[in-house]
Design goal:
Layout lengths: L6 H30 L7 H12 L4 H11 L9 E9 L3 E9 L2 H14 L3 E2 L9 E9 L5 H11 L3 E4 L5 E5 L4 H10 L6 E8 L3 E3 L1 H16 L3 E6 L1 E3 L6
Parallel strand pairs: 8-10
Antiparallel strand pairs: 1-2, 1-3, 2-9, 4-6, 4-7, 5-6
Helix pairs in contact: 1-2, 1-3, 5-6
Length: 242
């Protein structure tokens, strides 16, 4: 019989993962507040960031402190937004959004990741045209499809995508995201995930060793401290996780 990590080892790993998630959320709150003001009522980006932080069980005190640092009420670090674009194996397009206080460190880490897994870093605009900014509300399997679809249409959603496993995505224009989310919640539909993200116009299917390399690259990038979000147009099959 195989033996897994100790309870203490698992807890330490979970705590480290949670700490990394919190770091990314705090950086997003900081930049949103610094660029759009500390009032979530008049700053949709900040409101979305706070909602995500609360969903991750971040305390309101930590959130409030991050906002105050960003708006100058408390001393804090200023982060710069940087986007990198490149290609993974198989011609897969990848966008990496970062928040950093050290551009030299960040670009070195991102370039190393692409090189390590057979990809290459591109120039600005080299793949961004393949993606569109969309609001996405994801509902877990088991939600009544007909009732949810009707509520989404009434809320002003752009599209509804139903997946084979029963999960449903409601897609919105980024400017309508907050209003559609509020309307869906008022109708009794609580999304499992709600975010404004980038979606590829068309996905590229990759298989076998290529799929595994792409999956490793995406995971490596997501684990970098300065990386907030990673987007790709990869359609990864089961081979990616073999």
């Amino acid at each position: 019989m195989g033996r897994g990590p100790s309870i203490e080892g698992r807890k330490n790993a979970e705590d480290a993962r949670r700490g990394k998630i919190f770091t990314k959320l705090i950086r997003e709150i900081s930049v949103a507040a610094r660029t759009g003001g500390g009032d979530p009522g008049g700053n949709p980006r900040l409101r979305t960031a706070i909602d995500k932080a609360l969903s991750a069980n971040m305390s309101k005190d930590v959130i409030e402190r991050a906002v105050k640092k960003a708006t100058g009420e408390l001393e804090g670090v200023e982060y710069e937004e940087i986007r990198y674009e490149g290609y993974a194996p198989g011609g897969v397009a990848v966008i990496v959004d970062c928040l950093t206080d050290n551009k030299v460190r960040t670009v070195a880490d991102v370039r190393h990741a692409f090189g390590k897994f057979g990809g290459n870093l591109g120039t600005d605009g080299s793949v961004a045209f393949m993606f569109k900014k969309r609001g996405v509300l994801t509902f877990a399997a088991g939600v009544g499809e007909d009732a949810l679809t009707e509520a989404a249409i009434e809320a002003g959603a752009d599209d509804i995508v139903v997946y084979d496993d029963g999960a449903i995505d409601v897609l919105t224009d980024p400017d309508s995201f907050a209003a559609v989310k509020a309307a869906m919640e008022a109708a009794g539909f609580q999304p499992a995930i709600a975010e404004v993200t980038l979606r590829a116009d068309n996905d590229i299917a990759v298989e076998g060793d290529t799929a595994q390399q792409v999956a490793k690259l995406l995971r490596w990038l997501e684990d970098l401290d300065d990386v907030q979000n990673v987007y790709s147009n990869a359609d990864l099959g089961e081979d990616a996780y073999a």
